[in-house]
Amino acid sequence: MDLVVGVDAGGTSTRAVVATVDGRIVGRGSGGAGNPLTAGPAAAASSLADALRAALHGVPAERVVRGVLGVAGTSALTAGGGSAYGKVWTRLGLTCPRVVVGDAVTAFAAGSPAPGGIVLIAGTGAIAAEVSGTSVVRTVDGNGWLLGDLGSGRWIGLAALRCAVRQWSSPFAASIASRAGVTSADALIRWAQRLPFAEIDALAPLVCSLARAGDPLAGSITSAAARELIRSLDELPRDGPVVLAGGLLAADTPVHDGVRSVLDSRGVPCTRSRDPAAAAAWLAARDLGPLAAEELHAVLLR
Predict the structure, then answer these.
(1) What is the rounded distance in angstroms from the CA atom of residue 295 to the CA atom of residue 19?
(2) Among candidates 178, 267, 262, which has minimal Cα distance to 223?
(3) Do 137 and 264 lie in a common domain?
(4) Are strands 14-20 and 25-31 parallel, antiparallel or unpaired?
(5) DSSP single-letter state for residue 260
(6) Would 244 be classed as within a structural domain?
(7) 233/280 same-domain check
């Protein structure tokens, strides 16, 4: 049976799925950071190669008839970085067409088979996007940590550092300082000014855990993150379902709870994004196999 490839290439990792056109997953693989804007086109292409090579292990590449790649930072590819992806495709023996879409498209498809709607993503960064088919029609935020990404994991990490230095005698500050490996507010300031982004991002799960445990300062930060995300969402028209995606919204976190509570109170239907790589495979296969698109979606993303 013919096969398809689906790829989710994000800022932290790259995941690939190989599936039959009737929805049976026959291979999975993963690689490193896949955003060509932040990792660079060459490094992102190398991550893609690692993920695809693992997913295609034992699978004849000539059986693959289509690929869909959901990529964060697609502007880097349209600016000339796409040739590195083409070389990966060739080296792995793939001769089929490949379609590159924004990661917002695959994140939405991972939560709904609807032809369009809204996806709200909060992971390391944050963005709200209106999706129609395989296109992103309009976005709000996604402007990076310096100018936006309000409510994101990095936003939470930075908010936690600001809160800790202002409330130094609090148990919350002690938890943040311990994670950073410092013993004074001045040392925490120096640590933060070096901008160790991976460590700052890693504060978000700690803040969520402290909020779950009832820490009032952590709770105020996660509540504020939820409000910022709702504010971004409210700038987009409501037409179709809302899909919640990214580590802060697709998982059980206080941020998800805050956003979901607001949407439920408004009667807005929403679902969680599940497996964007499988969703990319669904986009590739939905008009090729024996199953209707919605049925295939249920099989691939069960």
Answers:
(1) 15
(2) 262
(3) yes
(4) antiparallel
(5) H
(6) yes
(7) no
Q: What is the pLDDT of residue 296?
A: 96
Measure the CA–CA gap between 170 and 42, rounded to whole angstroms: 45
Is the C-alpha dihedral spanning 197, 199, 200, 203 positive or negative?
positive
Q: Please indicate, yes or no, whether residues 104 and 161 belong to a single structural domain of this protein.
A: no
Residues 145 and 52 in one domain: no
Task: Give the structural domain span for 150.
Answer: 121-272
Short-list 224, 277, 258, CA closest to 8: 277
Residue indicated by tokens 């008839």: 65
Q: Within this chain, do residues 99 and 183 fall inside the same structural domain, yes or no? A: no
Looking at the structure of the chain, the number of domains it has is 2
CB atoms within 10 A of CB 7: 31
Closest CA to 250 of 274, 277, 224, 225: 274
Same structural domain, 260 and 280: no
The pTM score is 0.89
Cα distances (angstroms) measured from residue 105 to each of 114, 253, 277: 11, 23, 11
178-219 pLDDT per residue, tens: 999 999 999 999 999 999 998 999 999 999 999 999 999 999
Question: Residue 288: helix, strand or coil by DSSP?
Answer: coil
The domain that holds 196 is classified in CATH as 3.30.420.40
Round the CA-based radius of gyration of the chain to a whole number and report it. Answer: 20
Start-to-end Cα distance in the chain: 21
